[in-house]
Amino acid sequence: MANVAELIVKALEQAGVTTAYGVPGEENTELMLALEASSLKVVLTRHEQAAAFMACVQARITGRPALCFATLGPGATNLVTGVADATLDYAPMIVLTGQGARARIGKAESHQVLNLQKLFEPVTKLSRTLMHPEEVSSTLAEALRVATEPRPGAVHLSLPEDLAAEETDQQPVKAPQQARATVMPQALAAAVELLKDAKHPLLVAGAGVLRGKAAPAMRAFAEAARLPMATTFMAKGILPADHPLHLHCVGQPFNDHIDDLIPTRDLIVAVGFDPVELAPAAITDGGRIPVLHLSDVPAALEHDWNVTCDAPGDIARTLRGLTAGLRGQRWPEDAAVAALCARIAQQRRSAHPGTDGIHPADALRAVEAVLSNDTLVLSGVGTHKMEVARYLAARKPGQIIIPNGLAGMGLALPGAIAAADLGHHSRVFAICGDGEFLMNLQEMETAHRLGLSLTVVVWEDGGYGLIRAKQEADTGQHTDLAFETPDWDHLAKSFGWSHHRVSDPEALQAVLEDHTIGLHLVTLPINYAQALERDDAFRDKAA
Fold it and tell me: How far is CA 401 from the centre of its chain?
């Protein structure tokens, strides 16, 4: 006989869950004992939000469900932001929260007891409160199935403390392996005909391409048909930076180069595109351009886009089917595409010396220079995220993680810790704004305790720059959004990290090249305000 907590952990082991991130409490003591006796690695974090962010990043890297846990009440509420991030970035996650004894659930008032099932319903794909031993195995199997569907996400189970300790003879129920659906032949035929009739199609690849392991098929299709391709922030790396068909990222809040090309297209081929990352109107000239939608799930039609053909199914198989159906048809070289690629290349090469603070492009050029094929970069959220999306090129798909569904600040540091602890990459970098980094800096202790090696690069501008730019774009003025930053050197040393202050791109590159082992905090002054044409374009687009 085992208790319910032990049953749950056994089922998670069988499902391939390897790590549990969280902060324990009195109400999940049985769960902690079961985890300690299992093969799962338990990573004690310093805040529940960070635990959820860690599980989210691990799930994005591995494609397998990751586990985060917390106690009832404030422990559970602290998880919510990170859980929502996993759901909107489509990362498979299991969330286990402790709960008071079953006799307390439903009372009008009971210490720390909230309706956790309802609390997590809006930010998960499934949320349940376990009440009987007999339902545990089947409910957990269903949760694992839902979490790992073609469009994955977070699922939540609330475990009352008395149920966790109750003995049961139940055994884990193994969810059957899900096969990816194949596109219907009639939908594929319609997609081929629609594409054949287009004179100037544009491919837009989204994060679903990476989730579906379809990046090689995506590249092969683009090259076989000679079709230009842009990606969303989360799908960077499908094509090399200098590829003649690569138009880099779409989705900036200001008018970017790609925005000038989109109105000249007569068909958007949206592949693995998630509207949660970018409003479809941004890639369809406000809904004017028809869309061929290729993804693992049907298109969400409530958006402002004209989905003329929807062909849901396994993305790689669909792309191979399209290639066969086109029978060698290739589109002629496009002068507008070539000119756009040249402008992007020139922008990426341009240096900005002699300025007050480092230009984002120069800082990211230094980062890109030290990337190898097995390096991972995580971006936080803020003005720096836009710059990472625009200037930093990945050597391969999935090398740069940019949270862009929920786009919650605070992910980069805990996410980098999870990635470094996973050990799949030779080096892990996090790029943060000074405002974001301070939101989860307590996890510097977690990284030191785990004995990890990683580098965090903090861009310092002393305020919430993206909000300031938006306020100025809307009103011509901004509220007080400035703040002070700590003594970075003392902060780093207090957590057992090394600190490096750099003031130019060459020094940044040297530090990144020379300090590969251990924990390193690199701070630098950044200058977002130099690109005046970008600020004007931001206002134009906002208007």
Answer: 6
- Percentage of the chain exceeding pLDDT 70: 96
Give the Cα separation of 161 and 147 in Å (integer).
Answer: 24
218, 252, 254: which is closest to 238 by C-alpha?
218
Q: What is the CATH number of the domain that holds 271?
A: 3.40.50.1220
Q: Is residue 218 part of a domain?
A: yes
How large is the angle between the packed helices 360-369 and 383-391, nearest 10 degrees?
A: 60
- Considering the domain architecture, whether residues 373 and 496 belong to the same structural domain is answered as yes
Q: Would you state the pLDDT for residue 543? A: 42
Are the beta carbons of 524 and 460 closer than 8 angstroms?
yes
Q: Are residues 224 and 112 in the same domain?
A: no
Same domain, yes or no, for 375 and 281? no
Domain boundary among 311, 340, 369: 340
Residue 30 tokens, joined: 């049985």
Q: Tell me the backbone φ, ψ of residue 493, rounded to 5 degrees.
A: -65, -35
Q: Identify the domain boundary among 142, 168, 194.
A: 168
- DSSP per position, 174-194: PPPPPPPPPPPHHHHHHHHHH
* b/e burial code for range 16-49 (CB count within 10 A of at least 16 → b): ebbbbbbbbbebbbbbbbbbeebebeebebbbbb
Would 315 be classed as within a structural domain?
Answer: yes
What's the pLDDT at 253?
84
CATH number for the domain that contains residue 443: 3.40.50.970
Tell whether 299 and 430 lie within a shared domain: no
pTM beyond 0.90: yes
Residue matched to tokens 């300090």: 515
Residue 116 is part of which domain span? Answer: 2-168
Could you write out the DSSP letters of every residue in 30-73? HHHHHHHTSSSEEEE-SSHHHHHHHHHHHHHHHSS-EEEEE-ST
| Domain total in the chain | 3
Assign residue 538 a region (left: φ > 0; alpha: ψ between -120 and 50; beta: otherwise): alpha
Round to whole Å and give the CA distance between 217 and 239. 11
What interhelical angle do 335-349 and 360-369 show, nearest 10? 90
